[in-house]
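Summary: Need help interpreting a holo structure output

Steps to reproduce:
1. Submit the protein chain below together with the SMILES for coenzyme A.
2. Request a joint structure prediction with the ligand placed.
3. Inspect the structure token block that comes back.

Expected: a single structure record containing both the chain and the bound molecule.
Actual: see attached output.

Input attached:
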Amino acid sequence: MPWVVRDAVDEINRAVGRRWQGLDRLLPPRAELPEGCAAPLVTTGANGRPAGLASCRHEHVPAGTLNQTWGTAHRFSLIARLREADTSAALDDLLGQWRDHLAGLPGTGVDDTAAMITWPARDVSGVNTLLRHGLQPITVIAVRPARPGPAGPGPGPTGDESLVIREAGPADLDTVTEFEMGVIRYDALFGAAILRPATEELVRAETQAALAARPAWAWLAERDGEPVGLVHVQPPGQSRWITGMTRAGVTVYLQTMFVRPGERGRGVGAALVRHAHAVLAARGVDTTLLHYAQMNPLSGPFWNRMGYRPLWTGWEVRPAASLR
Ligand SMILES: CC(C)(COP(=O)(O)OP(=O)(O)OC[C@H]1O[C@@H](n2cnc3c(N)ncnc32)[C@H](O)[C@@H]1OP(=O)(O)O)[C@@H](O)C(=O)NCCC(=O)NCCS
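--- attached output ---
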């Protein structure tokens, strides 16, 4: 990378970090621009200096990995760093350059490809530009900071005599796999998951490994001895793939939340999440992150009631070459 661009990267990263902190204290304090497939795309401001930079990254997700259930097989992501509070003109220019770049790449016009951008939820200045280029908001990364002060009484009775929350263990493999698949099937209705031939087998293998870990990070709700709901959290060490999306501190990723259809709206989900939050607080967790599908009519309101709010929005257009 020529030194002029490298200097601009450092300077813009610092400016964007400051701007993000003004928008949302739970965004990361520094905005890194990762290496892309080529030199960064540059947009120039009215003063002739770079007003924004962007890297394009190509990811080819192998068949037979669970990651292919969470999106298309071929992903082209733009990581944009824009200096000004009003991002619209600079973003428009970068998206136009990116469209031309994608149009020149082989294979971007076929099924199972996506052009993607993860945008700070509170940076509302970019929303109309993203829409105009054909991108759609598909997923939300939501965040919940642990409450300051004492962690509270810890997990306890649910207040509903017939409902018991307990740790999930190796003997619960069938039930937990069924509930994990329940969320994936539901999220697939909203474009946030894509069911693959290998999905169930891969979920089962991952579940088996997760349930063997102690202490437990997954809890089942049982009504009259029958499992009716699941909450499953990734421990801090396994959450590192996403912890850079928020402030420093101990961060975990809540990967699954599911209540059987006939049991919804009766407080099972809230009891599970209250229990998990109490355990997480006792284990020193500062921040919890999770994904929900933007169009899922059940998850957004529920997570908001549980203390979560949007941090990032995942925008996509499929196939990648249909970016406008
Ligand atoms: C989301 C889900 C786990 C909620 O579980 P639940 O047991 O139905 O939720 P609860 O009955 O405990 O509701 C807890 C609170 O959220 C509110 N809530 C739950 N679903 C809601 C909805 N769709 N709209 C508005 N409020 C809702 C309840 O009113 C309640 O609020 P209150 O504390 O003021 O009474 C459940 O609907 C589900 O399994 N959905 C399918 C899978 C899914 O979407 N998982 C989340 C993926 S990120």
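--- end attachment ---

Reviewer comment: Residues 173 and 208 are 6 Å apart (CA to CA). The pocket of coenzyme A is lined by residues 183, 186, 257-259, 264-270, 292, 296-299, 301-302, 305 (CB under 6 Å).
Status: needs-info
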